[in-house]
Structures are given as structure tokens and as C-alpha cells.
Amino acid sequence: MLGPDVNVAHGNHFSQEDIDHAVEQGVSFSSTPEVEMQMGHGIPVTGKVLEAGGRPTWGVDVCSNVSGDMGSQMRIGMQLQRMFDNQAVLEGDEEVTEVSISARDTLEMATVEGAKALGLDDEIGTITPGKRADLVCFDANDFMTAPSHSPVQTVVFQADTSHIDTVLVDGEVVKRDGELTNPKVGEEFDRFVESGWRLLDEAGIDL
Fold first, then answer.
1. Are residues 155 and 57 in the same domain?
2. For residue 28, what pLDDT band results from cuts at 50, 70 and 90?
3. Tens-digit pLDDT profile for residues 181-193
4. I need a labelling partner for 76 at 20 to 30 A (CA). Which of 24, 109, 157, 158 fits?
5. Is the dihedral of CA 44, 63, 99, 135 positive or negative?
6. Are residues 28 and 109 in the same domain?
7. pLDDT of 114-170, one tens digit each?
8. What is residue 73's three-state secondary structure?
């Protein structure tokens, strides 16, 4: 039953032995760190998968109560794992002199590793001739992002959704100059907000 066509989400309570075996069979693991920490899922699976020689992917879950952007997930997940790894070094009375997950590692876990988990890495996940043009372009010219000496580190550590200037999906522009091009975004916004208040009212939730 185990193979590259299986992706495990929320595998936080898997033993290291189980993860070792699953990774050996080609299984991928997804971590949704923000919601897993909030909802008591336990420690994200990131470290165990890396220990097994695998590469986890970042994901978003329950974006009605946590942030829905991938940037938040990869930053939280990376820094959380760094914290655990750093603590192990400190408890050995040693000084932390290197990081366990680099900015490039975490960006790849948000892009190409996710594509691999979906079995779509021959179509998306990297900027490669012949693949679909799924591109996200960041503006690196404001106080939060400039000067951008390393584009990868700027995206991982400093950028947020406000810095996304242009987005292409399969070559089609869906966001330009920071604005979504789909007219339904504006047309449906008020109805979307009203539906949220209606759901709270019908559920008897008093904020």
C-alpha cells in the first residue's frame, strides 16, 4: 500500500521507525505547522522525515483559523525545527554554529517537494523549460525587502503576501501590480463577508 502515490498529512505521532519505512517506500509527508501547533496535533513531522532521509513538504490547513499563505507555513515550520535542533546542541553544552534547515531548503519544501508529493514535478515546482508557467513574482523594493542580496532569503525571511506583485498560473496572469485580475473577487467579496457573519449567527457564536 505504500509508495510514491501516498502522501501523509498530520503524521505527527508516527514513530521514527514507521517514518523510516515509509520514506524508504517513497511515501511523502506534509507538515502544516501553524495549525498543527494550534490544534494540539503534536510536534510537526519535519525532523523525523529529515532524519529518515526524506524531504517533507509544507502545507496549509484550516485557513479559517490560521494564516492561509504558504510563506507563513514555511517560515514557522523552518524556525520551529531549527529551535528543536538548536536546543539539542545547547543541551550538549555546545554552541550553535550552523542552521539545520537553510532558506533554500524551506523554499524547495514549499515548491518542488510539494509538486513531487502530488506527482506533478514533471509539470510544476521549478522554473524549467517545458513545464507549465506557474510563477510568483515578488516586489523586493520596499523597507521590508530591500536591499535583496539573496532573493531566496528575502522571500523566506522578509516577504509576505503584500510583496507578491504578479502571479501566473499555467502562463495566464491571475495577479498583476498586486491586484487579482479575476473580476469575481470584487463582485463576490461582500457576499463572502456576509456569509461568514451568517454562519456565526446560525451557529449561535457570539463574538
1. no
2. very high
3. 999 988 899 999 9
4. 24
5. positive
6. yes
7. 999 999 999 999 999 999 999 999 999 999 999 999 999 999 999 999 999 999 999
8. helix
Please check the confidence at residue 204 and state whether its pLDDT lies above 90: yes
Q: For residue 19, what is the domain's CATH number?
A: 3.20.20.140
Could you tell me if 158 and 95 lie in one domain?
Answer: no
User: Cα–Cα distance between 162 and 90 in angstroms, integer?
Assistant: 36
* pLDDT score recorded for residue 50: 96
99 with 52, same domain: the answer is yes
CA-derived radius of gyration, the chain: 19
98 and 171, same structural domain? no
Q: What is the model's pTM?
A: 0.88
Instruction: Determine the structural domain holding residue 25 and report its residue range.
Output: 1-125
- 72 and 49 within one domain: yes
CA distance linking residue 125 with residue 161, whole number of Å: 19
**How many domains in the chain?**
2
Q: Is 205 helix (H, G, I), strand (E, B) or coil?
A: coil
The residue among 125, 159, 189 that closes a domain is 125
One domain, residues 27 and 79: yes
Burial 59-91 (b: 16+ CB within 10 A, else e): bbbeeeebeeebbbbbbbbbebbbeebeeeeee
Strands across the sheet containing 57-58: 7-9, 28-31, 57-58
Using alpha carbons, select from 133, 44, 118 the residue that is nearest to residue 81: 44
Cell numbers linked to 149:
542580496
